């Protein structure tokens, strides 16, 4: 008993030290050391650390990618945690290569040429949508935007919604497999994507007309990929006011559009999430850059 609680304390202490090596100022981040400490914490029986080891393996952070090892970590936790067991069941029902890539790409249906917009039916299953919603719920915060003047994240009435994102510490194999599905559907590399965000708009919430381009950044946002996770709302269409296009997706369907034309921002890609008038709109959103993108410069 005493040995058990000592091991639990040791595991928790190692986990916290590892976590702090990533959840800190960029200059202090140390992915390699964090990975070592997460492995030690996992060996001491800390289940959060076992999951973290799985996240690092799924993405290949500070190590070679190892999808089989990632799933083994999660299967271990699944024996004692019901939500982890459900995510493993969802992964097992995806049709994936041994590397975690989808075997077949989704079918795109072009709905506009200028700007380029495509729609994808049944991109996620209803259970996958529900899982993304429940995984993101504890992380949901009032949404922010990048301030074009300072480059910092700020609150702005242009974007009234709640958002959560699956960053380096929360991109599990389940989320990673979905990011790989998005990459294949958009003919991009998974490393071009920014963290997957979950946006929740309640009545009156909206994302006013804006562009997703990052002014002055050579590695601009090429594509925006949106997936509808809950369609029990009215209003809330995604509108492209200059192109006269309005899109409403049903649960599980996705759309993607290009924010650039060649090397230049596409002015026609101005878009808005119209105000929700009833219910709650929940979507997943991923901004895909022109090239590999990491918000963590040393990774
Ligand atoms: O909510 C919407 O329909 C649009 C979302 C959006 O513009 C974005 O995530 O960049
Ligand atoms: Fe946008």
Automatic annotation (TrEMBL):
Q: Which InterPro entries match?
A: Oxoglu/Fe-dep_dioxygenase_dom, P4HA-like, Pro_4_hyd_alph, Pro_4_hyd_alph_FE2OG_OXY, TPR-like_helical_dom_sf
Ranges for domain Fe2OG dioxygenase: 192-290
* Protein's UniProt name: Fe2OG dioxygenase domain-containing protein
**Tell me, what is one Gene Ontology molecular-function annotation carried by this entry?**
iron ion binding
Cofactor(s) the protein requires to work: L-ascorbate
Write out the entry's keywords from A to Z: Dioxygenase, Endoplasmic reticulum, Glycoprotein, Iron, Metal-binding, Oxidoreductase, Vitamin C
Any one Pfam family here would be 2OG-FeII_Oxy_3
Task: Provide the organism lineage as a comma list.
Answer: Bacteria, Pseudomonadati, Pseudomonadota, Alphaproteobacteria, Sphingomonadales
